[in-house]
């Protein structure tokens, strides 16, 4: 399939490959934000701020990661036990609509569908007379995680610097001017949450509140925000919840927020004491000291990876204009900025000891946001962490691992109560209270396979680190998920295979019954997920908890499961029946999980499945919701088609403005547009960039596997491959020219390139890679329709090397 990448040939001659300057890592604008999707995100994992930058009235919309509606609860119930066999029989009888209706009535949650993540509110800073301004500029500098606003009024330049301090756990704002005595403003806080009270304590203004009641669950999250100021010159006065500053030379605002949340089952914390403590410790430091600690902390993670795709003068244009024009012009710095922006967002929304990034990361201005800004576990929550290992942000993954541990506890209660099964279960959604019952209607919620996908993510971390202590820690979680499916899965009398039923191919209707149901038996995605879970549990058991009888039990179940199927339209079937419609362009591409993030589908090992997956992706088309396009970047990269992957990046970097009501893309502030905002598309695309430049899911580190023509020269530093190998690579004319590899843990490093390499210790590879962290799998031979017409996989000639590396050493190679 030929694709026309939307750039003109002249673009290839107007850029030069230079070291990426820090100025390239700024999102900047020449107008204030008029709406939330134009404001700029700051975060320290726990606190989030959206900076609007209006000269007359600055708005900082604020979040604290544990402000959620409701309180500790479970939405599991026992009514489902009686309904389950009836639903199964209706599915086996082909009565899908009746099965779905019964599941909605008797299996879905009978109480609540999970609680929404909620905003704290906003801080407003009002400057009289600043409506008329000139020389406006605002930016977000992701090289140091700070935001800045500058403008002039009556010849005086005013500057605001804002950061959410990682080390000091406060939001800090520095207000300054080019002339003394010019800072005069009023500062106050408010919230859309009803149960809030503004007050004053000395020179502090305070906003205290309580998370809302929701779907019958009483709101019990108490929160408090405190704000104070330190001035140079002028006067400060606090009264009636307003902080007034008069004729100061410079002012620093300190903002703390805290809640009574301790963990998903304990809200006995003291939000007042915590908010006071955060503020008192920060207030003892000046802005520059807090900023230095903040930048040092942040850069410890961010500076691990750099990407250089070239440069040109387009960097001089405002970011929103560059997003708007990305498909029409070659803007390599915007592409690199977009990649790094995803890493910035993950550092800013997911820190060790805190909550994982939710559907909107930590940024939300609503009391009941879309989909409640929960954790959607049929793709979105996992997608948030796709960049964590490969882009060298391993620590940011820890909140997700902790959530998995907690879900295995609450999910065990749900598995027993709802299905009389051992182990633990997770359906398609959870929240801060770690609810695990199916929610919403059966059309989306009757999907019990979330635990398997969570465990795939946990296993991947092991492959990147080789950490057997970690593997021993997560093995009980993986085994618990497998135990559930050993109990829950049944033989489908129509196919004679062991399958998950009832379930669905997430959110997509099939042709069975009236064509309006999603509920089904043995969907392809479920089979792929359980294949991975069982396979990984078997391997993990051998490594950290040998149990021959258990391994045999899991292996026997695995042997009874169905193979993947290729249908009459030459597609990878989404269901056991050949129901796929070539005109179906549904946003979910669930049956392609086996291609990415899994490694079950391979150009070399399973060429028929590879071609069928490609045909399925072509049928689905390119443009879709933001997160769907992010997934497709990775899928086309795994299909070794860099030009198509780049075309998806162009589609994703389509500017979504306030008057565009449908379709995905990117908002002016570079956040992902589903629409509405969902952060997973940002993370998916960042992972996709990495997959285009390096892959390690099979038996080798494949360098430049899906390089688009427009990136013929470039460099990347700091990507991490499975096996704990850190890759620094430069390429010219589409071939690796310089390569440095740092081995964290030692072992055989197998390299796969299209050209040849020179360097000490290089040997032509022979046989199977002996490094066990390059985890290869064997899937069953697919069942192929007689009507299918599959193409032949065409691959370049690769050169494959082995290098036996020692832990802690760096190896250097050059390309020929």
TrEMBL record:
Domain Glycosyl hydrolase family 95 catalytic residues, every copy: 287-693
UniProt KW keywords: Hydrolase, Signal
Domain called Alpha fucosidase A-like C-terminal: residue spans: 695-763
GO MF annotations, alphabetized: hydrolase activity
Pfam (any one): Glyco_hyd_65N_2
Domain Glycosyl hydrolase family 95 N-terminal: from-to ranges: 27-264
Secretion signal span: 1-21
Top-level taxon of origin: Bacteria
Protein name as it appears in the record: Glycoside hydrolase family 95 protein
Organism: Flavobacterium hungaricum
